[in-house]
Design brief:
By secondary structure, this protein is of the alpha+beta class. The chain is 38% helix and 23% strand. It is globular.
């Protein structure tokens, strides 16, 4: 009896282990043999490679194991025959997924999956299939998309796709994926080349009070109705900023000293390259200058990533990524530097970094 019980336990464990495996089988007529097809996990706006396989005889098979109930994933390939793009996937333990890659448009990649969310996600790609095909046909001709004429044409197509998405969303329930698309549309609706903002505001008006208070609802609100920008000459905002231990700080706590605000994120190599120069300036002007690094990362990424960088100055986050104080400053890329005078007035706002750049900005201010 004990032996039978043991075998049953082993068999149950094997079933559980197998249930954590995800297998993606694929075929392709446009990716040449020898190219990798990569599977990424989508986390906090980043793509982290988790598995890959090499195309052979027009086929590939990607196997990975996931322990979470569900992950957002993306399938991509960097073959020169394709534009750089990624097909969104949703995976659960034991998911059965097949992908047929026969078109340069990732929205035309045929995905068959037993994950219910995948079917919902694919509605958006299918809703504008001809537009997506035309969009990717332009993208593959000039993948850097730097030609003004080409960029304008691609922006026009995306604007039409966004309008189609909004019409589709009017008839769909407010699910997690629905909110993902609402936030995405809200984030870019103020771009000058897009005209869908009024239609999106009508869709936003259908949210319930509870939905408006959700994380997604708050993000959509912040993107759709951005705060007044803090410009040079304005007083810094009074937002709650948290250190790694959870203590709350405000920029006004540093009045009486100059403040160098360094906006960074974990995977930003120019941000990391700036640290030695920041450290040297912090030490040289320690009596009159405070340095504050503000994170552009999600809270968990900021906390885990900070362990690799022993910052000797203030390392804070408002835990709102780009919808809090960084949005007020108009930060749209990293690194980004802001200099505040002892009275709390913004004196400098600048983006990007090259070696020696901060030494051109800080010493003249300190020596006034």
């Amino acid at each position: 009896m004990k032996k039978l019980l043991f075998l049953l336990l082993v068999f149950s464990a094997l079933i559980t282990l197998q249930a954590q495996n995800v297998v993606i089988t694929g075929t392709t007529t446009i990716i040449p043999d020898g190219n990798d097809v990569n599977l990424y996990q989508r986390e906090n706006g980043l793509l982290n490679l988790i598995a890959s396989d090499v195309v052979k005889d027009g086929k590939f098979r990607i196997t990975t194991e996931i322990s979470e109930p569900e992950i957002g994933a993306a399938l991509g390939c960097f073959a020169k025959e394709l534009p750089i793009s990624f097909r969104r996937l949703y995976l659960t333990p034991g998911a059965e997924v097949s992908v047929a890659i026969d078109d340069v448009s990732v929205q035309a990649w045929k995905v068959v999956s037993n994950v219910p969310k995948q079917k919902e996600e694919d509605l958006y790609g299918e809703n504008s299939q001809p537009l997506w095909k035309e969009y990717y046909s332009y993208k593959i001709k000039n993948d850097d998309s730097r030609s003004p004429e080409l960029r304008a044409k691609m922006d026009s197509l995306q604007n039409l796709i966004h309008l189609n998405d909004i019409e589709l969303m009017k008839g769909l329930p407010h699910t997690d994926i629905w909110f993902e698309h609402l936030v995405h549309l809200s984030k870019f609706c103020k771009k000058s080349s897009y005209t869908y903002s009024p239609k999106l505001e009508e869709l936003y008006a259908t949210l319930t009070p509870a939905e408006l208070e959700s994380d997604a609802g708050k993000k959509a609100t912040a993107y759709l109705f951005p705060p007044k920008l803090v410009e040079v000459g304005d007083t810094v905002p009074e937002d709650d900023l948290f250190d790694l231990s959870g203590a709350v700080h405000r920029l006004s706590d540093l009045r009486g000293k100059w403040v160098l605000i360094d906006v960074w994120y974990i995977y930003c190599s120019p941000c990391i390259r700036a640290f030695p120069e920041i450290s040297e300036l912090a030490a040289r002007y320690k009596d009159v200058l405070e340095v504050v690094s503000l994170s552009f990362d999600e809270e968990d990424v900021w906390i885990s990533g900070s362990a690799a960088h022993n910052l000797s100055w203030h390392n804070w986050s408002d835990k709102k990524v780009d919808t809090g104080i960084l949005q007020k400053f108009g930060v749209n890329g990293c690194p980004y530097f802001i200099v505040v005078d002892p009275q709390g007035i913004v004196r400098v706002k600048t983006s990007g970094y090259s070696t020696g750049e901060l030494n051109k900005i800080i010493p003249p201010l300190m020596e006034q």
